[in-house]
Amino acid sequence: APLIGVLALQGGVAEHVAALERSGARTRLVKVPEQLDGLDGLVLPGGESTTMTLGIEREGLAEPLRGFVGSGAPVLATCAGLILLDRAHLDLLPLDCVRNAFGRQVRSFEADLEISGLEGGPLRAIFIRAPQVRHADDAVTVTATVDDAVVGVRHGAVEGYAFHPELTGDDRLHAAFVARCRRA
Ligand code: GLN
């Protein structure tokens, strides 16, 4: 089974670990750079991107994460995890994220989304103070939208979502990611 790391500085770590293990992966929590060694893939969970950024600085994880993601290893980033990859943060995806972009009143909502490349019909997506993707380069493939907002992207071996696929019990995105890590 592929060994998949989950960045475990803050946020929805346990839910991703559970979804990955239900999908047949082995998992490892990543809190320090050495824990990236030997991984077949990496999940960047949702949570609070400012807190995670401080943790990345504290643990000296910025360059190791750039090296891991830049090497072309499979990455699944959700919500705050997607924000970490944008131009203003680790600069690993050529796009900008607008934080809390769905408004302060509507902190949380759900929608059934068609995800390009995902079989089995629409996916229930839970948005919690979610970002939107703006100004993506042409090299970025948009895989999901809600109204006209971009909430799913693919760029090389990185897939990112503004919502929380780990919270619904529908493990199709995790299963596809685990399969991708197994092939890589
Ligand atoms: N609003 C959060 C942030 O900006 C992200 C929300 C989430 O990950 N659910 O970090």
UniProtKB/TrEMBL annotation:
Its annotated pathway? Cofactor biosynthesis; pyridoxal 5'-phosphate biosynthesis
Q: Which NCBIfam families match?
A: PLP_synth_Pdx2
Q: What is this protein called?
A: Pyridoxal 5'-phosphate synthase subunit PdxT
Q: Which CDD domains match?
A: GATase1_PB (cd01749)
Please name the GO terms that the record assigns under molecular function: glutaminase activity; pyridoxal 5'-phosphate synthase (glutamine hydrolysing) activity
Family per record:
Belongs to the glutaminase PdxT/SNO family.
Q: How does it assemble?
A: In the presence of PdxS, forms a dodecamer of heterodimers. Only shows activity in the heterodimer.
E.C. designation(s): 4.3.3.6, 3.5.1.2
Q: Where is the active site?
A: 79, 164, 166
PROSITE patterns documented for this protein: GATASE_COBBQ, GATASE_TYPE_1, PDXT_SNO_1, PDXT_SNO_2
Matching SUPFAM superfamilies: Class I glutamine amidotransferase-like
A Pfam family reported for this protein in Swiss-Prot or TrEMBL: SNO
Instruction: Give the source species.
Output: Patulibacter brassicae
Which positions are annotated as binding L-glutamine?
Answer: 47-49, 99, 128-129
UniProt catalytic activity: aldehydo-D-ribose 5-phosphate + D-glyceraldehyde 3-phosphate + L-glutamine = pyridoxal 5'-phosphate + L-glutamate + phosphate + 3 H2O + H(+); L-glutamine + H2O = L-glutamate + NH4(+)
Q: Does the keyword Protease apply?
A: no
Keyword Endoplasmic reticulum included in the entry's annotation:
no
| Alphabetical keyword list | Glutamine amidotransferase, Hydrolase, Lyase, Pyridoxal phosphate
Give the superkingdom in one word: Bacteria
Q: What does this protein do?
A: Catalyzes the hydrolysis of glutamine to glutamate and ammonia as part of the biosynthesis of pyridoxal 5'-phosphate. The resulting ammonia molecule is channeled to the active site of PdxS.
